[in-house]
Amino acid sequence: MAPGPEWGDHFYRVDAGPYSQGPVSMTDAEASMRIVINHDECRHGGAFADRCLAATLEHPLGHERYCTAAVEQDGRPELTVTLVMGGRRHTRIFRDRAERLAAAAEGWPAFV
């Protein structure tokens, strides 16, 4: 079996400082990411999956990502999050931390 991704691989590498530079700003590393969260494949589901989604939006650089299917640096100036739920893909683009925090408070309905 081939070894899995290493910390130095582009898929996991994030060179960033604090999570936020202020109440509505994002670091370059937070902003230039694409994250796919697959609730269809998450074994936890329910309220736990909602908390995981909120944690991802609040701290995209890292937390225990049980439902996360992909994380990559995409070089775009914003954070792109795709939620897979019920066989459908719902994508939101977040331009600042305030948008992310509002969606985290709302949960999955913010995506559908």
Short description:
The protein has 3 helices and 4 strands. It has helices at 28-31, 46-58, 97-106; strands at residues 33-38, 68-73, 79-85, 88-94. Mean pLDDT is 75; it is low at 1-24.
List the helices and strands and how they pair.
Elements: H1 28-31, E1 33-38, H2 46-58, E2 68-73, E3 79-85, E4 88-94, H3 97-106
Parallel strand pairs: 1-3
Antiparallel strand pairs: 1-2, 3-4
Helix pairs in contact: 2-3
General description of the model:
- It is globular and about 30 Å long.
- By secondary structure, the chain is α+β, with helices and mostly antiparallel strands.
- The protein has helices at residues 28-31, 46-58, 97-106, and strands spanning 33-38, 68-73, 79-85, 88-94.
- Helices cover 24% and strands 23% of the residues.
- α2 runs antiparallel to α3 (97-106).
- It is built from three helices and four strands, in the order αβαβββα.
Number of helical segments with 4 or more residues? 3
Classify the beta-strand content into a percent band: 15-25%
Provide the helix percentage: 10-25%
Structural class comes to: alpha+beta
User: What Rg is obtained from the alpha carbons, in whole angstroms?
Assistant: 14 Å
Segments where pLDDT lies below 50 for 5+ residues? 1-24
Give, in spatial order, the strands making up the sheet with the most strands. 2-1-3-4
Helix/strand order, N-terminal first: HEHEEEH
Shape: globular
- Main β sheet profile: 4 strands, mixed
Count every beta strand, where a strand is a DSSP E run of 2 or more residues. 4
Q: End-to-end span in angstroms?
A: 38 Å
Instruction: State the oligomer.
Output: single chain
Q: What is the mean predicted local confidence, pLDDT?
A: 75
